[in-house]
Design a protein that fits this description.
Elements lengths: L8 H15 E3 L5 E2 L5 E2 L1 E3 L2 H4 L2 H15 L6 E5 L4 H13 L5 E5 L12 E3 L6 E9 L3 H12 L3 E10 L5 H8 L5 E6 H12 L2
Parallel strand pairs: 5-6, 5-8, 8-9, 9-10
Antiparallel strand pairs: 1-4, 2-3, 6-7
Length: about 200
């Protein structure tokens, strides 16, 4: 289970339902080709959840509960997957009287003006949280971390919406960030359990 002390279990349960209904596909006989080129019977299109009003609100609430005691002043990750998650946390934190500014990590280096990877109102040395929607190989999270560090930010921790539990992604992220919290709100196992309960398979 991914719920932690102080969280309301029903919120996580509802978020899992939205992920199952909107973002998850399963096909044992016809595997999906992923961005990495790998094949998998599981497919997550998490933007269907992160861009949903209820999904975004729940992500903001759950994520704020998870990190409210962490000394972070910024949240972001590699565009595009991280953007709505970071925005949800920024707005939820502000509603609780806490300033956590969103930042965006570019996929390509800006070639004019201030040449930088990171966009946002943060300063060198600020402690930040890196987020992403789904971890497969861990490459996008690690890339976001490397570019944020290059632009002078300090990474306190990493939280992703869904851990696919395939291809060693979370293991790679943890190895890249020893001593830092690296967590997932939801796992593939939890979604598959819900899938089997709902569809009796």
């Amino acid at each position: 289970m991914t719920a932690t002390r102080g969280q309301k279990p029903e919120r996580l349960e509802r978020l899992r339902e939205i992920v199952l209904e909107e973002s998850f596909r399963y096909s044992e006989g016809h595997p999906f080709k992923l961005v990495s080129g790998a094949l998998s019977p599981f497919y997550f299109d998490c933007k269907k959840t992160t861009l949903d009003p209820e999904g975004a609100h729940l992500i903001g609430e759950i994520l704020f509960d998870r990190v409210k005691d962490w000394p972070v002043v910024g949240v972001g990750g590699l565009t595009l997957g991280a953007d709505p998650i970071a925005a949800a946390l920024m707005h939820m934190a502000w509603s609780h009287g806490r300033r956590i500014a969103q930042f965006i990590v570019r996929k390509e280096l800006k070639g004019h003006g201030a040449v930088k990877w990171v966009e946002g109102n943060l300063c060198r040395g600020d402690q930040v949280l890196v987020v992403d929607d789904v971890v497969t190989t861990g490459g996008s999270v690690i890339k976001a971390v490397e570019r944020a560090l290059e632009d002078g930010l300090n990474i306190y921790g990493i939280v992703v919406l869904v851990d696919r539990e395939e291809f060693g992604g979370m293991k790679r992220v943890r190895e890249a960030m020893p001593g830092h919290p690296v967590e997932a709100l939801i796992t593939k196992t939890e979604i598959m359990t819900l899938y089997r309960e709902r569809y009796q398979v």
